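Quick question, first post here. What does this chain look like in 3D?
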Amino acid sequence: MSAWRIDTADARAAWLAVVVAVIMAACVALWPAPVMASGAADPAVTATQEGAAFGIDGFERNAKGTARAMDGQPAGYRFPLLDDSNVVVVRTPANVLVHVDADAAQAAGFDCEDADDQAALRRMLCDLDAAHSMGGAVLSDVEDPWLFTVEPDYVQAPYRYRFCVAGEDGDAYAVVDAAGQADAADAAAAADDIDLGDGALWSDDARLVAADQVSLAAESTWLEGLVAFFARIDYRPLWVSIKTAGVALAVSFALGLLAAWRTMGTTSRIKGVLDSVFTIPMVLPPTVCGFLLLMVFGQSTAVGRWLIDHGVSLVFTWSAAVISAIVVSFPLVYRTALGAFEALDSQMLDAARTLGWSEWRIFHSLMLPLGWPSIAAGTVLAFARAMGEFGCTLFFAGNYAGITQTIPIAIYFEWMGGDTDVALFWVLVVIAFSFLVILFINLYTARSQAYRSRGYIKGRAAADALHVGSRVQGVQDAAFLDDDEAAGGDALRIDRDALRELMRTDAAVCAAVGAPTGAVSTGRGSSSPSSATRDGKGGR
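> Answer (accepted):
Ran it through. Tokens below.
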């Protein structure tokens, strides 16, 4: 059996660890979040070319446009532009179309017909586009043709491209509509079965200025760059992750132990059903769990409306992030606790019942201390799983900085925003944390199970010494062993101590069974309820 020293000190230590974990989780949940630096720097938005009279001071990439109507009127497929943009780049299915405002080109010294100026502007645009590509396709992949124009409209059938168009909202747009239709472009496109969104894969816009007007950042040392990097990181995802995982772990730990304890005592058929229900979140994709939570607690569902009527709104709140973490971490606590309880010697539990121990006393004085190494390992894994949750949290809690944005969500959106350096930083944080979790589990398991290796080594030493035929020498080499240790090492000693704890009954209990106090001995030749159980006389 899996033996563990059972005494009052161990039981108290186990429960003390539980109480400390709950208190820490509560403190983390209620303590206000520290004020951290926020805001990540954008990728480079300026560029110059040696020998060129012009440069770029401001850049933006739009991966997707919109065909949503403005003020109820169709406005084609459009990309929003930066203020004062005078260069618009549209990656079409066939080529790259570059529009440069005529006045801006003249002021910056750019000649739209000059091949050298075209090549210089092309290199600047490719470099900036690659920095903002977020891992997607880039302009540098397109060799030819690159088309440069200063005209506000450009027709490339079946599409028409209009640049720097003022919208009804006052903003500027690059617009794609149907060629040859000035007024009813969207209707014409629909009639001809033309998808205007297919006319532009993505769009870039920039500000072209004279080279001496480009605001280039001053070069800094590596130390200054490192300090600036850490200064611009928003550390709130770390705080949100720890707070969310801590509260979720406290709830998952309590519910997991209770579920494992009650499941163990049910019939096999009911146990199979309960085990499937409690374990299924561990095998379902996280997005499925998040979707199901939305179906249950969403604002349009019966449960969601009932909660809203009572002043509770869960969706896209920190509470939703906690619930998501509980759903994915609970099965880990439950499975490890159930496995630890099922591995216990049922005869020892039956011996405790013959002494009149309640099921609750058996649970917290025997089952919990005996199974604590496995439970502790499962608990740590559950904490790491709660910290690493992504899909369920994003579905049910959303992405709100400082509220529901955990580290995995921050990694995704930092990468999507083009800030690969910050995303890599959080990846390294997660890797380091996971390493520490695994290391802790290994060290704790090795320490808690040390008796197994000691007993095995000592038993093998004695057996090997006797096997070579020198019994006297073998006994001398294993003089530190007694007969019990030679057979089972520390495991038997621990088992004997556990049984001794079971035999510690008060005088009233002994009198109730008609035996004098201290009549039951734990010596090698004595009998006990436990031994009777092993002989088939005292079991259930």
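Residues 54-213 form one domain.
Residues 12 and 365 are 9 Å apart (CA to CA).
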